[in-house]
């Protein structure tokens, strides 16, 4: 049951409920930049924390770093970004809109007319996607720096530092979460493609003979992360292998995890075999050896890298799209369709895990509900709400994906029990106050979307 999700519906819910706002909206907005509101920041942080835990805590051979956004300009020469990081772009001579040629509709590409106004298009030109700025008071070519277009290079240039300081042995990985910037020509579809975004990347350093094995291992790990840890519906994600014309200049093999967004299947994460490209290039450009000595065999080699590169902000969009459902619950008393909008977030991702309501404010129920809410705070993210009809309070929580609601009523004062309502099934059960935390914890552990 329920009707189709559109991007308009999602953008509107995000604004209405405080997930995502247009950047600088009071000034008319800055296109392709978005701000995360009170609920959005919690959702994003929850996704980041789960990724970090899966990648570092759950693997004893992966460590984290947090590198600076600004790096030495030579980094981007070595990485190939100065030379290769560009898209073919065409401009409309009439309306001045700029398009990425490879993303234009087939017809517009063949006829060379603007898909917006029908005007004449220029020949395609290469457009470098890196944002540049100047370090220091004088703006000249000698002090130009770039905002990093990916977090990966911060890991490669720290390979030796981590190796020497952490006693890690190959195979091992380095994980990082942080901002990246790309001067994207076509930015649309809300937070899918933006000029400022966040990545969650992990580079896994291995012996070159073992690349196929580790590539498969990481593909499996990443699939399980999406379906089991984030609770994404398995029929909404798929693998897409890069053909020879799609492979990046450094890659030997690459698979994308794709999600079926309201606008179609699109990339969410890349799993890449980057070979020894990056370490070799940095060694060449900095003029110092960057390699690894296998102590037992005395073999010295440049490690290969299997990379898992996910967009954090793009995962927020994935989780929002995947969670959204409109359910038609029949007709209400006035004969109108009763539509319930519910976000089926996995409880571990939900910005608010538990909401507590008194049935009415008076007769000590508010105080009791507040006390229960305060006691649950150390275990869960909680929210207290005493305003409006109880049904409306439930619906407000459904719309922001709160998986558990607790209602305190007159019986609660007599027998120390409360109503626990489950978001997905709307089932209501009576639970003793002292058993609440354990019941919710079990619910989270055994959670299956219904
Ligand atoms: P595309 O072909 O869509 O431009 P890409 O293949 O260049 O993306 P990668 O360089 O592999 O992307 O980046 C890894 C991940 O970072 C992507 O899977 C995506 O989740 C995220 N990402 C890349 N560019 C953006 C962007 N402009 N906005 C939001 N997320 C992005």
Jot down its keywords.
14 helices; 23 strands; binds adenosine-5'-triphosphate; globular; 450 residues; alpha+beta; 5-stranded mixed sheet; 2 domains; Rossmann fold; BirA Bifunctional Protein, domain 2
Account of the protein in words:
The strands form 7 sheets. Strands 3-9-10-16-13-12-11 form a 7-stranded mixed β-sheet, sandwiched between helices. The protein has helices at about 5-15, 40-55, 75-80, 80-85, 105-110, 150-155, 160-165, 210-230, 275-285, 310-325, 365-375, 390-400, 410-415, 435-445; strands at about 20, 35, 60-65, 85-90, 100, 125-130, 130-135, 145, 170-180, 195-205, 235-240, 255-260, 265-275, 290-295, 300, 305-310, 325-330, 335-345, 355-360, 380-385, 405-410, 415-420, 430. The longest helix has 20 residues, at about 40-55. It has 2 domains: about 5-80 and about 150-320, Bira Bifunctional Protein, Domain 2 (BirA Bifunctional Protein, domain 2); about 350-445, 3-Layer(aba) Sandwich (Rossmann fold). The chain is of the alpha+beta class and about 450 residues long. Helix 2 (about 40-55) crosses helix 10 (about 310-325). Adenosine-5'-triphosphate binds next to strand 10, strand 13, strand 16 and helix 10.
């Amino acid at each position: 049951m329920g009707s189709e999700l559109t991007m308009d519906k999602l953008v509107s819910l995000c604004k209405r409920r405080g997930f995502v706002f247009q950047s600088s909206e009071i000034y008319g907005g800055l296109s392709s930049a978005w701000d995360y509101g009170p609920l959005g920041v919690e959702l994003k942080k929850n996704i980041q924390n789960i990724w970090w835990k899966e990648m570092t805590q759950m693997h004893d051979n992966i460590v984290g770093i947090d590198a600076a956004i600004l790096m030495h300009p030579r980094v981007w020469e070595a990485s190939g970004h100065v030379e290769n990081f560009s898209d073919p772009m065409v401009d409309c001579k009439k309306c001045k809109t700029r398009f990425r040629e490879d993303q234009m509709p087939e017809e517009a590409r063949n006829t060379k007319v603007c898909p917006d106004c029908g005007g004449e298009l220029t020949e395609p030109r290469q457009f470098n996607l890196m944002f540049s700025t100047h370090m220091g008071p004088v703006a000249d070519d000698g002090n130009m720096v770039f905002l990093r277009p990916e977090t990966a290079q911060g890991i490669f240039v720290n390979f030796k530092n981590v190796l020497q300081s952490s006693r890690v042995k190959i195979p091992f990985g380095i994980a990082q979460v942080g901002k990246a910037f790309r001067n994207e020509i076509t930015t649309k579809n809300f937070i899918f493609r933006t000029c400022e975004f966040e990545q969650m990347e992990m580079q896994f350093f291995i012996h070159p003979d073992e690349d196929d094995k580790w590539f498969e291992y990481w593909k499996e790990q990443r699939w399980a992360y999406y379906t089991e840890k984030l609770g994404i519906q398995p029929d909404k994600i798929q693998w897409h292998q890069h053909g020879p014309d799609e492979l990046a200049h450094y890659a030997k093999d690459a698979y994308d995890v794709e999600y079926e967004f309201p606008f179609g299947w699109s990339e969410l994460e890349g799993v890449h075999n980057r070979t020894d490209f990056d370490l070799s290039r940095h060694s060449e450009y900095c003029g110092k050896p960057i390699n690894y000595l296998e102590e037992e065999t005395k073999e010295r080699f440049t490690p290969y890298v299997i990379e898992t590169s996910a967009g954090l902000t793009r995962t927020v969009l994935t989780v929002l799209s995947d969670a959204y459902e409109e359910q038609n619950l029949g007709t209400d008393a006035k004969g109108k369709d009763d539509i319930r909008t519910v976000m089926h977030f996995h409880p571990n991702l939900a910005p608010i895990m538990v909401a507590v309501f008194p049935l009415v404010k008076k007769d000590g129920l508010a105080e009791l509900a507040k006390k229960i809410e305060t006691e649950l705070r150390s275990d869960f993210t909680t929210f207290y709400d005493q305003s409006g009809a109880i049904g409306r309070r439930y619906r407000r929580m459904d719309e922001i994906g709160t998986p558990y609601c607790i209602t305190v009523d007159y019986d609660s004062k007599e027998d120390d029990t409360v109503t626990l309502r489950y978001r997905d099934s709307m089932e209501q059960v009576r639970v003793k106050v002292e058993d609440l935390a354990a019941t919710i914890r079990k619910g989270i552990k055994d959670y299956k979307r219904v």
